[in-house]
Write a structure and sequence with these properties.
The complex is a heterodimer of chains A (341) and B (165).
Chain A (H helix, E strand, L loop, with lengths): L4 E4 L3 H4 L5 E3 L5 H6 L7 E4 L8 E4 L2 E5 L4 H5 L2 H6 L1 H8 L4 H6 L2 H6 L50 H7 L3 E6 L2 E6 H4 L18 E7 L9 E6 L10 E10 L2 E10 L6 E2 L1 H7 L6 H11 L11 H19 L20
Parallel strand pairs in A: 1-3, 2-3
Antiparallel strand pairs in A: 4-5, 5-8, 6-7, 6-8, 9-10, 10-11, 11-12
Chain B lengths: L3 E6 L2 E6 L7 H8 L18 E4 L2 E4 L12 E3 L12 H8 L9 H14 L6 H7 L10 H23 L1
Parallel strand pairs in B: 1-5
Antiparallel strand pairs in B: 1-2, 3-4, 3-5
Helix pairs in contact in B: 2-5
Classes of the chains: A alpha+beta (341), B alpha+beta (165).
């Protein structure tokens, strides 16, 4: 690890505009520094910023950027009204990491593309213009939607997939004032030659994530995640689904996919097709077709397209069946008995 | 200027001068303070051997920058027993053979203490296994580990009931 200067920001005013890499929980940044992928000259420790609570906000919730992932996952209002968010969080990382990782850090985490993580491989994301080592490489964790020859990496977060489905908004403070961006559009898609622009400008800090009122979707929301082992692994593909159902018909539908693109992939065409339809398997199968429209393999990963369709259907089926009172022992697992389904 | 940090480690307040900001909490415990019970496995947050409690919650010490922990209360494996009296989780790991080589054991035990305090797994073996999934045991003593965590949970519940009665 390179040497660096360490400063602590005790107020948002001190953090905004500060030069250096922002350190919160450290679970991603320190790891990247140890493997030589991140080499900041200065760390600005924002872990003590007073952004560590969850509050009610216009029928929804406002989550501070320094709230730990575990705190969100066990918050009574999240479990009651946004259970797919809790299930997504609990399906990711380990209990130790969830106790340290913050909301803002989860959003800002780097791709787990193994070529990005290997400083000896060319990577346009790490070094614009260097090329892409993942093309023609091992691509089970890579994109099938929204990718270019410039970059085929995926965003690894589970939390962001559920947040995108729930129409969450990222609140940002910067030297030129405040702005906000929908979660589903926060992470840029790659352009022709590389990873695209950075999601945050220099000196900007994520302050909150805002969740709008979940309304009638509160108890019809699930997250399903396919991975190489049932616990402590990143998604091959995942899906967050939330439905409002009246008299067997879908009034509102939300569907977002994970593990398939450089951002959580909100499937709006699928949502529109579901609305007004009966909450049945046929509707879900058509929606899954639409969700994966335009998908193409970025390597030897064509299977992910069919897997994503199936996971989307599974998430919609489980959402339609209703969120169980208590989240299953194995959150988001595809290997679930009746009590999980 | 050499930065200093204040930590309460296993109940004892300490002021530590740190000449290198790169030290993780794990390195600080092992290399500076001689508390080698906390183990370095992968050093990347994947194996759980370095698990300690920070303000009562289990975290990976290898991914915690020491300077960022200023003011926190740290509990390591050395801080669990009271004299010769083992912590119920320690005793249960011995009773149920929750280890073979022992290298991952301090992390397993600290993680189990954190898990039981969280109170969400209870006596459901599946929830215990899922809750302990951040701790790898390459000897694969998982069956014994699960039994040990379940027994310690029962033991600590009973002790708490006795206290409140």
């Amino acid at each position: 690890m390179n040497r660096f200067d360490y400063v602590r920001a005790d107020s948002l005013g001190a953090a905004v505009g500060a030069e250096g890499a922002l350190l919160a929980g450290g679970t991603n940044l320190l790891d990247l520094m140890k493997i030589g992928v991140a080499t900041p000259e200065r760390l600005v420790d924002i872990s003590r910023l007073p952004l560590d609570w969850i509050e009610e906000h216009e029928g929804g919730l406002r989550i501070g950027a320094m709230v730990r992932n575990a705190q969100i996952a066990r918050h009574p209002a999240v479990l009651a009204r946004y259970p797919a968010l809790a299930e997504a969080l609990l399906s990711g990382a380990s209990a130790q990491l969830r106790n340290a990782a913050t909301t803002g850090g989860n959003v800002m985490q780097a791709t787990r593309c193994s070529y990005f993580q290997d400083p000896l491989s060319p990577c346009n994301r790490r070094e614009p213009g260097a090329g892409c080592g993942a093309l023609g490489g091992e691509t089970r964790n890579h994109a099938v939607l929204g990718w270019t020859e410039g970059c085929i990496a995926t965003h690894p977060s589970d939390m962001c997939v559920a947040l995108a489905a729930y129409d969450a908004v990222v609140e940002i403070a910067g030297p030129d004032g405040r702005r906000e961006v929908p979660m589903a559009e926060f992470h840029p898609l790659p352009d022709a030659t590389g990873a695209g622009p950075a999601p945050l400008a220099a000196g900007e800090v994520i302050t909150h994530i805002r969740l709008p009122d979940a309304g009638g979707m509160a108890r019809h929301a699930r997250y399903v995640k396919l991975r190489e082992r049932t616990s402590f692994a990143f998604a091959i593909v995942s899906a967050a689904a939330a439905l409002e159902i009246r008299e067997g018909r879908i009034v509102t539908a939300r569907l977002a996919l994970g593990g398939v693109a450089a951002r959580p992939w909100r499937a709006r065409a699928a949502e529109q097709a579901l609305e007004g339809q009966p909450a049945t398997g046929d509707s879900f199968a058509r929606a899954a077709e639409l969700a994966l429209q335009g998908a193409r393999p970025s390597g030897d990963n064509a299977a992910k397209i069919e897997l994503a369709r199936r996971i989307a259907v599974r998430a919609l089926e489980r959402a339609a069946a209703g969120t169980p009172e208590r989240l299953p022992a194995l959150p988001a697992s595809v290997f679930a008995g009746d009590d999980n389904g | 200027m050499t930065p200093t940090l204040n930590l309460t480690i296993n109940g004892t307040p300490q002021t530590i001068a740190l000449d290198d900001p790169r030290a993780t909490l794990l390195d600080l415990l092992r290399e500076r303070l001689g508390l080698t019970g906390t183990k370095k496995g992968c050093d990347r947050g994947q194996c759980g051997a370095c698990t300690v409690l920070v303000d009562g919650e289990r975290v990976n010490a290898c991914l915690s920058l020491a300077l960022s922990q200023d003011g926190k209360h740290i509990t390591t494996i050395e801080g669990l027993a009271e004299g010769e009296q083992l912590h119920p989780v320690q005793a249960a790991f011995i009773a149920h053979d929750g280890f073979q080589c022992g290298y991952c054991t301090p992390g397993q035990i600290m993680s189990a203490v954190g898990l039981i305090a969280e109170g969400e797994a209870g006596l459901d073996p599946e929830r215990v296994r899922e809750g302990m999934s951040g701790n790898i045991c390459r000897c694969a003593a998982y069956a014994g580990i699960t039994e040990a965590v379940l027994e310690a949970t029962r033991e600590m519940d009973t002790a708490a009931e006795r206290k409140s009665a």
